[in-house]
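Table S2 (text version). Query chain:
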Amino acid sequence: MSVANKKKKECCGCNACAEICPRHCIEMVNDSKGFLYPKVDTATCIDCGTCEKVCPFEGGNIALNPPLTAYAAWNKDQEQYLASSSGGVAYVFSSYIIKQGGVVYGCTSDGMQIRHIRVASLSELSKLQGSKYVQSDVRGLFDLVKADLKAKKTVLFIGTPCQGGRLEKLHQADS
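Corresponding structure-token output:
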């Protein structure tokens, strides 16, 4: 089986199915409102079920674990605090990771195009600042994250819970 027959209400557009497909027969396409959903080339699909194994809407794939602890913080650098959303803590974490030789993945906007990018230098961090409040295009991103992890780089991924959860599922599927 594949995600070919999924209805929109059964999909969050996380892109995990397209990233994991061994035949690369799943493409994320925009609907009439600009949201990305999977489109399966059924002629190429081999019904391996890999896409369903990573889908958050498939039974058993959702683990609702309450947080054990919550923290609140803000950036003490007034300039970064004002340039950021939600206190600018992501900038603090991101700059630390980059200074240690790691990389950061986060959401950026280029006009109306909202997507995740890879940032490896402090000078690029400003591209990630500010909240977007819309679906971010993560197509092709998970392969980059996996390559960085295989190269033993420290990776900070900033995204929604479903994006982070999909990263974990994809990593488990490769292991």
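Notes on Table S2: The longest strand covers residues 103-110. The chain has a mean pLDDT of 86.
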